[in-house]
Amino acid sequence: MRILLEVYSIDNSPLPKDLKVMILDDKKDIVLEDTAENEIVSIALQGLIGEKFSVKITTKDDFILEDFLI
C-alpha cells in the first residue's frame, strides 16, 4: 500500500524552519525524515497491511508522536 503524508499549515502560513517530520518503524527507529523548507512537507512511503509505523513531528520546543496501523 502506498501512503502520502503531508504536513502543512491550515492557514497557509510558512511552517517553522526547525520543523522535522520523521517516519519511524515499529521499533521506533527513523526510516524516513524531512524538514520544512517550504509551506509543505511531503513524505511518500509504502507498507503492507498489518504493518505498524509512527509519525513524529518535532520543533525546537515540542513534538508529537502518533502511531498508525496499515
Structure, described:
The protein has strands at residues 2-8, 20-24, 30-35, 40-46, 52-58, 63-69. It is globular and about 35 Å long. The chain has no helices and 6 strands. The strands form 2 sheets. Strands 3-2-5-6 form a 4-stranded antiparallel sheet, with no helix packed on it. A two-stranded antiparallel ribbon has the order 1-4. With 70 residues, it is mostly beta strands.
Helix content class = under 10%
Radius of gyration using CA atoms only: 12 Å
Terminal Cα separation, in Å?
Answer: 8 Å
SS element count, helices = 0
Backbone structural class: mainly beta
Strand line-up in the sheet with most strands:
3-2-5-6
Strand content: over 45%
Largest sheet: 4 strands, antiparallel
Instruction: List the secondary-structure elements in sequence, H or E.
Output: EEEEEE
Number of strands: 6
Which overall shape is indicated by the principal axes computed on the Cα atoms? globular
Catalogue the unreliable spans.
none
Q: Overall mean pLDDT score?
A: 94
List keywords for this structure.
single chain; 70 residues; 4-stranded antiparallel sheet; two-stranded antiparallel ribbon; mainly beta; globular
Topology:
Layout: E1 2-8, E2 20-24, E3 30-35, E4 40-46, E5 52-58, E6 63-69
Antiparallel strand pairs: 1-4, 2-3, 2-5, 5-6
Short description:
This protein is mainly beta.
